[in-house]
Design brief:
mainly beta; three-stranded antiparallel β-sheet; 1 helix; rod-shaped; BG_Antigen-Binding_Lectin; disulfide bond; calcium
């Protein structure tokens, strides 16, 4: 997933919050994450089911047909929840009240809760609203810094039936998984760059053998080159020096044995072997040493013929 240059409009089109009108963040992942998600509530009053609380319509003065209306009995808590489908970072919750007469009494003394199961009794409270009534057609925003999959509204039951109408339930947040961040980014808002030595989506990949651990947080390319002994854009190709390979020198060495000034005989010693190689920096330096020798009591003639010069381009390295 790349970084968004322009985010699409979010739903619903709400005011007074930077992420209500449009999606925001580097990956366009911050916004109303409750819109059109699965919901449930404590019964259904007047056919006004829970899905109406996340349909993107905040209600109107002429009807509350777009509002969710949990059914509750005297002394029984009324509740509503939205399933965000995965664990999210929640920032705040806005609830829109009905325009109907008496609506202000339906939006008092309630709590916002967050959990990871559909059992609202297991949800932990992250915000509470007291007895100051929300006016008809009004809304209230409560800060709720929590993490979870389910976000719920709960109003405890009183001595009389306390009706609840939720015309829109807006949850501002973003998926918690860092896989939702673009490559090279992590953190709550995807604004943090991967730590040195890591890169990719979710910063899940390790850099190669880059000098000073300097690699691109996006694709892992080494900006300052490789440590000695490694190759490639990401410095993950290792050079292995072959020090256990025997090379044939193929020198023809004339050995002489003489008594006085008389040459008695001569022999040719072939296939003298030996090798030594090492790695320095990024270049391969090669030194091949062949022991030249003659049998005891023989001497090396001053004329040594190189019949087959050694090719110094022999491969001493292999890549892994």
């Amino acid at each position: 997933m790349g970084t968004c240059s322009e985010c699409k409009d979010g739903f619903p089109r709400l005011n007074n919050h930077p992420y209500r009108f449009k999606w925001g963040g580097p990956a366009c992942q911050i916004g109303n994450v409750a819109y059109n998600k699965a919901t449930d509530q404590s019964g259904v009053y007047g056919g006004l089911d829970s899905s109406r609380g996340v349909d993107g319509i905040t209600g109107s003065s002429s009807s509350q047909s777009n509002c969710a209306h949990p059914d509750n009995d005297e002394g029984v808590a009324a509740w509503f929840y939205v399933d965000l489908e995965s664990v999210h970072q929640i920032y705040n919750v806005t609830i829109y009240n009905t325009f109907n007469s008496g609506g202000s009494y339906r939006m008092v003394d309630f709590s916002i809760r967050v959990g990871n199961t559909s059992d609202v009794d297991e949800h932990a409270e992250c915000a509470h609203y007291g007895r100051e009534a929300v006016v008809e057609g009004g809304d209230v925003t409560l800060d709720c810094s929590a993490r979870g999959r389910y976000v719920s509204f709960r109003r405890e039951g009183g001595e009389a039936i306390d009706l609840v109408a939720i015309c829109e339930f807006v949850v501002i947040g973003h998926p918690l998984t860092t896989a939702e961040c673009p490559a090279g980014r992590t953190g709550t808002f995807c604004l943090d760059v991967c730590d040195a030595g890591s890169f990719g989506v979710g910063c899940s990949e390790e850099c190669g053998h880059c000098k000073n651990d300097l690699c691109s947080a996006v694709d892992g390319r080494c900006s300052d080159g490789c440590e000695p002994g490694f190759l490639g854009d990401r410095c993950n190709e290792k050079l292995i020096v072959q020090t256990d390979i025997t090379y044939t020198c193929n020198y023809s060495v004339k050995c002489l044995k003489s008594e006085g000034s008389s040459v008695l005989s001569s022999v040719i010693i072939l296939d003298l072997t030996g090798t030594f190689a090492w790695l320095s920096g990024f270049s391969v330096e090669l030194s091949i040493h062949c022991d030249v020798w003659c049998p005891e009591n023989w001497r090396i003639d001053s004329q040594i013929e190189n019949t087959d010069p050694i090719k110094l381009t022999e491969l001493l390295l292999r890549r892994t």
